[in-house]
Amino acid sequence: MSIIEFRGLTKAYKDVVAVNNLTAKAEAGRITGFLGPNGAGKSTTLKCLLSLATPNSGSALIHGVPYQALVNPMRQVGAVIESGGYNPSLSAIRNLEIIAAAAGIPDARAVEVLKLVELLDVAPKKVKEFSLGMKQRLSLATALLGDPEILVLDEPSNGLDPIGIAWLRTFLKNLAHDGRSILISSHQLAEMQNTVDDVLIIHKGKLITEGSMPDVIGIGTLEEAFIRLVEAS
């Protein structure tokens, strides 16, 4: 069953068409890798999905409706789009408590998600003292505050060292094993090959392929298939 759908999605900024009549989907209970070169339109597509940008035409749907139509979006969809939006002078735990309170989520959940992303030991530390990798983990914790069934992640491995990237792989697989559906944008193709179930590739705002990982890569690697498909398009 498709849990996320893009139907003829088009988004332009003045004379630049960032997303061009994109029709694609992500299936429930699976990890879908959303791939494409720089400037392919991935971030714009995800912003349209989360109602952070308004399409010129077409739609981006979650459970068949736009994000803004969800009754309690934070409990249904968790997102990592940018590592920001925090008060840098407040501690990690206090930032999460404020966000939780605004969504009607108990403070205790802030402790739970910090433990999940292995930041509990630095919970009292001010966010301005965090490394980029720590901020990425904090963003993941924020996305999980509402215990959502769907995660939308834009380059969540940015700032992570090799150990952190390996940790993220296991973390995402465990979330999927628990029944969550994950749409993840990344340039880490080798890592995506080891992490995702399905692949959705766009170039210049247009879909060039989608399908299961084995179907897309055939014989070889995801990187080889990616380069071949992008160059052919």
Note down, in words, how this protein is organized:
The chain has 233 residues and is of the alpha/beta class. It has a single domain (2-232), classed as P-loop containing nucleotide triphosphate hydrolases (Rossmann fold). It has helices at residues 42-49, 73-76, 92-102, 108-116, 132-143, 162-177, 189-195, 213-217, 222-232, and strands at 2-13, 16-27, 31-35, 57-62, 77-80, 150-154, 181-185, 198-203, 206-212. α3 (92-102) crosses α4 (108-116) and α4 crosses α5 (132-143). The longest helix has 16 residues, at 162-177. The mean pLDDT is 93.
State the helical fraction: 25-40%
Biggest β-sheet, characterized? 6 strands, mixed
Looking at the chains present, what oligomeric state does this protein adopt?
Answer: single chain
Strand content: 25-35%
Number of distinct helices = 9
Q: Which residues form runs of ≥5 with pLDDT under 50?
A: none
Counting structural domains, the number is: 1
CATH classification, class level:
Alpha Beta
**CA-based gyration radius:** 17 Å
The CATH topology corresponds to Rossmann fold
The named CATH superfamily: P-loop containing nucleotide triphosphate hydrolases
| Broad shape | globular
**How would you spell out the order of helices and strands?**
EEEHEHEHHHEHEHEEHH
Taking the alpha carbons of the first and last residues, their distance comes to: 28 Å
Mean pLDDT: 93
Q: Indicate the CATH architecture.
A: 3-Layer(aba) Sandwich
Cross-sheet strand order for the largest sheet: 5-6-7-3-8-9
Q: Count the beta strands.
A: 9
Secondary-structure content class: alpha/beta
